[in-house]
């Protein structure tokens, strides 16, 4: 009979289908995904539909990046969620995005605004992880490596766009970064 109380406690814990965020989210909200496939070079993830606030980065300079972050902050305030995403299209258009957790309400954005709320549908992405202080150059280098691995594996993927994802402040001592490339049919 001693067992009974602990069984009763265990049942609700194991019964739920609660998603467990990866350790590199460090307890902060981050987008939910499942790993579809994994090789030594990359993994394929299926992300649920997500919301982001986004703004353009006119030039890939530290100055423009800081200004873009300030624009997002002026709309959404400071909140705790990761990753910060830099979406690069055709090697020349840069967009900064912050993940908006499902339970967070962003104040209404009045048009026209340089900041947009973007709802992204469910998406399959190929992911490569890299370490060290994140930068535009490191993002590009790793996107190229991911591209090569995907080609070698015979995958079909977007060749015009990739995204770099950072999960901690630029000044953190250790970094978990990722590059994402959309899977195509
Ligand atoms: C990159 O930006 C495009 C255009 O805004 C968007 O459709 C796409 O979902 C973004 N991709 C990633 C991986 O963030
Ligand atoms: C997983 O990736 C491997 C290597 O590219 C491939 O052979 C296999 O078909 C993939 N499996 C799925 C379920 O996509």
From TrEMBL:
Q: Keywords in UniProt for this one? A: Signal
Annotated signal peptide? 1-16
Q: Name one Pfam family in it.
A: SOUL
For the keyword Phosphoprotein, the answer is no
Q: Which GO terms describe its cellular component?
A: cytoplasm
GO MF, any single term: heme binding
Similarity comment text for this entry: Belongs to the HEBP family.
Q: Per its record, how is this protein called by name?
A: Heme-binding protein 2
- Which organism is this entry from? Pogonophryne albipinna
């Amino acid at each position: 009979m001693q067992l009974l109380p602990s069984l009763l406690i265990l049942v609700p814990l194991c019964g739920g289908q609660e998603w467990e965020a990866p350790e590199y989210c460090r307890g902060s909200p981050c987008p939910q995904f499942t790993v579809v496939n994994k090789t030594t070079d990359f993994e394929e993830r299926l992300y649920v539909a997500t919301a982001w606030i986004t703004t353009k980065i006119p030039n890939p300079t530290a100055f423009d990046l800081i200004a873009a972050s300030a624009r997002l902050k002026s709309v959404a305030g400071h909140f705790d969620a990761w990753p910060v995403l830099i979406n690069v299209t055709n090697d020349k258009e840069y967009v900064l995005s912050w993940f908006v957790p499902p339970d967070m309400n962003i104040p209404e954005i009045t048009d026209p605004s340089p900041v947009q709320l973007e709802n992204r549908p469910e998406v399959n992405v190929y992911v490569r992880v890299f370490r060290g202080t994140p930068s535009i150059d490191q993002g590009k280098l790793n996107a190229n490596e991911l591209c090569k691995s995907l080609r070698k594996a015979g995958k079909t993927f977007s060749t015009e766009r990739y995204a770099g994802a950072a999960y901690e402040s630029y000044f953190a001592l250790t970094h978990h970064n990722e590059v994402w490339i959309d899977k195509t049919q």
